[in-house]
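User: I'm writing a short report section on ligand binding and want a predicted complex to refer to. Could you take this sequence and NAP and write out the structure as tokens? A short remark afterwards would be nice.
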Amino acid sequence: MTTPSDFPVRVAVVGSGPAGVYACESLLAWADQHERDIVVDCLDRLPVPYGLLRHGVAPDHPRIKGIARTLESIVTDPRIRFLGNVEFGRDLTLEDVPRLYHAVIFATGALADRELGIPGEHLEGSYGAAQFVTWYDGHPDARRNWALTADRAAVVGVGNVALDVARMLVRTPEQLEATDIPAHVREGFGTSATRVVSVIGRRGPAYAKFTPLELREMGKVEGLTIVVDTADLEYDDEARDHLEHDRRAGQVCDQLAKWAAAQAETGHPSADAAEAAALSAGGRVVRFRFHRSPVEVLGTDGRVTGLRLERTEPDGTRVRATGVCEDIAVDAVYKAVGYRSDPLDGVPFDPATSTIPNDGGRVLTGPGGEPVQGLFTAGWVKRGPTGVIGTNRHCAVDTVNLLVADLEAGALFAPTATDPQAVRDLLAERGVTVVDGPGWAAIDTSERSLGEASGRERTKLGSREEMLAAALESQPNRR
Ligand code: NAP
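Assistant: Sure. The structure tokens for the complex follow:
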């Protein structure tokens, strides 16, 4: 009789971003500890791995991008097979899973934009942060051209994505010279005209989601003046209490206060005067505006011309509307109000939270429902788009612990295709051009040589065609 330990444990991990790769790492650690054979297929719909690390982290954040080296050491383990350019739901379906794998972990992340639900948000010039981020990070499915023609832009939201978007909007081409952005994005930044970016928070600064390190970094951008409205830095008892107990929030507000103090010392204490002085000196400005909630994107002839903001006042830790509105003139609006995940064909999905319903990582039939055999989830599609990259490591470990418990209880699938090559054969039959580990290595080499030619560590290939061409040179006949 064949017992489960006669052939390797086989797991598919859908998504090769940090959560997916950390799930692979955790599966390998379990296999090492229990001396079990394992084959993990790490699938990605893109020909390249690392998900949001590659297509979400800002290019001027090389420190964070450096985490790719850790992820690389995991995916190059011979027990992990990278299967890129494979779309789950199309090239490989949920129906295929029980025949091929003991279990599957969905770690598909979140790279769609949440909407504001206000009039005008679909005018030309109103964008989601994810659209812009995927463009500047060279995501092959992002739009090719970006018109950086706005003199003034607004970024809605006061989280780290808002900071990334605002900072990238005021970067000069020279400041992006050393980064890995693809050639077409470099060209786009060459025409950037944006001089003023207003960053809009609906609550007060005490409740901004920025992390202090990321906020301080804004102050290091050369030629940039940061403008703060000092009235925004007055706190009620609730906010003061919050600042006393939340160190991160305290540091964020201290930094804003330092900028306000520096502004007062220049002799331009009001935000309007400080902005005007910085512009007349030829500089660029990021201006923080708190206690303002966007109620309408204004436009003429289908294009953004302004943003209507309603003043808010504190109501506990939240805010209430005051009915008092002001319009700011802007040519572009970027919504950085959170990402959301997309559903996967046949996999339970809760549209209210944009996540896969789960209990600690075991997929459920629906919110509060029953576990679904063999299906697991990790990362942002499991718990929503919050936390730093490292958060996904703990999240993936929790999921793998449950998967292993189910494996040991004999509660997973019992794949009938015993040869791990079966999935490659199936994909070949379906005409899928798989980019495997060596294929990705060839893309990597190609990007490094492209970068080297102009003195950079890397220049990303910006289209799927270029990526596939580079990969296929190394794997013309590989199954
Ligand atoms: P986030 O931290 O949740 O911030 C979202 C912001 O949007 C909040 O300020 C929120 O305000 C605001 N917002 C939501 N709905 C709104 C509405 N209808 N009107 C006005 N404002 C609204 O999300 P994120 O910035 O997308 O970041 C996602 C995660 O990635 C975070 O954990 C972040 O730290 C991480 N990240 C880290 C880095 C880094 O470390 N360098 C870079 C990028 C992202 P309320 O608080 O009032 O709801």
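A remark for your report: The chain has a mean pLDDT of 95. The first strand starts at residue 9 and ends at 14.
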